[in-house]
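In the lab's daily routine, each protein ends up as an entry in a very long ledger. A line of letters takes care of the sequence, but it says nothing directly about the fold. The fold becomes a row of whole numbers, each drawn from a learned catalogue of backbone shapes. The protein below has been through that process, and both of its lines are reproduced in full:
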Amino acid sequence: MIALTSPYLWYTTRATGLVTLVLFTIVVTLGILVANRVGGARVGRFEFSELHRSVSIVAMIFLAIHVTTTVVDSYVGTGWLSLIVPLTSRYERWGVAAGAVALDLTLAVWLSSLFKARVKNQSWRFIHWFSWLAFVAAVTHAFVTGTDTRSGVGLVLVALCAAVVLVAAIWRYMARPPRAAGRTALSPLSALSPRDGKS
């Protein structure tokens, strides 16, 4: 079928891949700001938390488009199984495997955040650490598999994303505040429990 080998699918895959990487760079950086309790009079901690949540949703949408167009495009020979199971792709096996690892870890973090109210704080924090591994895997995937990321502007963009997160990670470690025992920042827009809703 011509539609399944259209160059527009390939262009969409490449574009959404780069956009997704940039968005996840922003998500990780905002997560670090939230973890280090950054906030002031103009932009409070809750605003950073909501921005972190909102950008992560947009990033997941672009990620969904990226993986869908990759699989639908029969020219590259990537099957649905290779999205979640590493080393099962016939195309760029190691690069796609890194993408599968990034997707699996990202889904774990995202789902744990969706059900945060039902997940123990320690478990949620442990799963959230996967976001670092997911980002490393995503950068590896972008560099190894990406058509536009081995030279020129694409390479600069990937290197810049990696550098931003690296600097943010160092700052996260150096400037982290003492965490109150058993506390995590819940969204102020999250639904109230029946007990909270009672006056």
Summary: Residues 2-197 form one domain.
